[in-house]
Amino acid sequence: MWKKTGVIIWMGILAAFAGKEMVIHNKTANIVHAVSTVDSITFKHTEGPSGQLNLHRDALVDSVAHAKIDSITFQETDCSNIEDVTSKVYFTFVIHNEEDDANGVPGSIPTIPDYNGNKAVFDHFAGAMMDYAKMLQKYGATLSFQPDWTFIEGAMNFRPSFFPDLEALGNVEVIPHAHETIVPLDSIYKMEIEAGAHPRKQIGGMTVGKYMQSEDWFNKNPGWSHWTGPFQSPGHVGDASPPPFAFRIPLPADVSETIDLYKHVASSPVVVTGSIPSAVNSWSSAKPTGAYISSSYWFEATRFFMAESDDQSVPAQWRKVPGNVRMMTSAEKIAKIETALKDTYLPLQSEGKLEFMNPGEVVDMYKRYEHCLDLVDGQDLSGYAK
Ligand SMILES: [Zn+2]
Fold first, then answer.
1. Is the whole model's pTM more than 0.70, yes or no?
2. pLDDT given at position 77
3. CATH numbers and ranges of domains, the chain
4. Helix axes 149-158 and 119-138, enclosed angle (nearest 10)
5. What number of other Cβ atoms are within 10 A of residue 312's Cβ?
6. For every residue of 174-186, which 3-state class applies, written as one string?
7. What are phi and psi of 22, to 5 degrees?
8. How many CB atoms lie within 10 A of CB 340?
9. How do residues 241-281 score in pLDDT, each as one tens digit?
């Protein structure tokens, strides 16, 4: 009864019926990509219940792959409000922790706090992260929390309620960010789940070299997207900017240098939420005109939220040195960001020019409106390389 059908046929059917409802009697692994471009799906089992699915797309992919689904109805999103969707900048606050035990050697990166080995250090920084997330929540702002493995291990060792408490605030999305010297990305994703979080399958930054080596991984792991994309260099030195909007990057087999990433490939499963700088005075020139979904972010690393200068519980390295204006205590850092929120970002939100949204939700929105955007298969985006 079920026939195997290639992704090209699926995409062809989707293109032919763009904007209309369609019924497809079939099932294949490639449906994973086809369903990612539509808004709602009605499914019918050969036996058992029928109904409407409005699941998160990762869950949907799993349902489609594992259920005995006989026919599926696609309903594409209406494009009439696309101007409302694309005229805003989708903004979030981002945290990376990085790893201090590179290659599994404890303390091998002394500039990163010992999250998994020193309880007082973990307690200070975990407390700072909660305070930061709560301040953002008060204003309806979002936080994309992107831990590497040593911070997650610290939470599991010293404060098992950390991730459940963080997610319970409602404005935080946890996704993996891995330097992968020893713990690979999918292990970080699994550790986050083990630690009580509900991560999206979204990568919080990756080097272009790592991406090029990940051909097999991306083939075996459908459904992953990228926050900002694999434009980073090792150590984040001289990083190239991603194009200033969400699109689909070429798969690793078609990438041999960073510039090859600047191309929209409609059949690629890997969505990138390209971004523009956080400085709002550059937005009017950085955000391209046309139907594109642009996001932006304010980045901080956990270690920048230092302890008070007289806090003897943590090593001196993590205490603010009095009078050093470049160092900030956690309270000072949070107050500074709160001021920026009130003075800059909230007024833009009131004017309808900004919406707070985490990267995973930006990917969902991109997929829902993809057929309404000005992106064309094969589109050369190298003009945005900086
Ligand atoms: Zn990093």
1. yes
2. 79
3. 7-75 (3.30.1490), 83-384 (3.20.20)
4. 100
5. 10
6. ECCCCCCCCCCHH
7. -145, 155
8. 13
9. 889 999 999 999 999 999 999 999 988 889 999 999 999 99
CA of 85 to the centre of ligand 1 (A): 30
d(CA 60, CA 116): 35
The stretches of the chain forming alpha helices (DSSP H) are 7-16, 31-35, 57-66, 82-86, 119-138, 149-158, 162-168, 185-194, 208-212, 215-220, 283-286, 330-340, 346-350, 359-369
Report residue 199's pLDDT band, with 50, 70 and 90 as the boundaries: very high
Segment 289-308 mean pLDDT: 96
Q: How far is the CA of 375 from the centre of ligand 1 (A)?
A: 30
Tokens of 155: 């939470």
The DSSP line for 86-138 is: HSSEEEEEEEE---SSGGG-TTSSTTS--TTT-HHHHHHHHHHHHHHHHHHHH
pLDDT digits (tens, 9 = 90+) for 11-26: 333 333 333 344 444 3
- Alpha carbon distances (Å) from 101 to 83, 145, 301: 47, 20, 16
Ligand 1: centre distance to CA 328 (Å): 20
Distance in Å, CA 178 to ligand 1 centroid: 7
How much distance in Å is there from the Cα of 98 to the middle of ligand 1? Answer: 5
pLDDT of residue 75: 61
- The Cα-based distances of 247 to 116, 275, 303, 304, 336 in angstroms read 37, 11, 32, 32, 33
Element (H, E) at 29: none
Query: Residue 249 Cα, ligand 1 centroid: separation in angstroms?
Result: 21
**Spacing, Cα 223 to ligand 1 middle (Å):** 22
Residue 179 CA to ligand 1 center (angstroms) comes to 6
The residue type of 353 is K
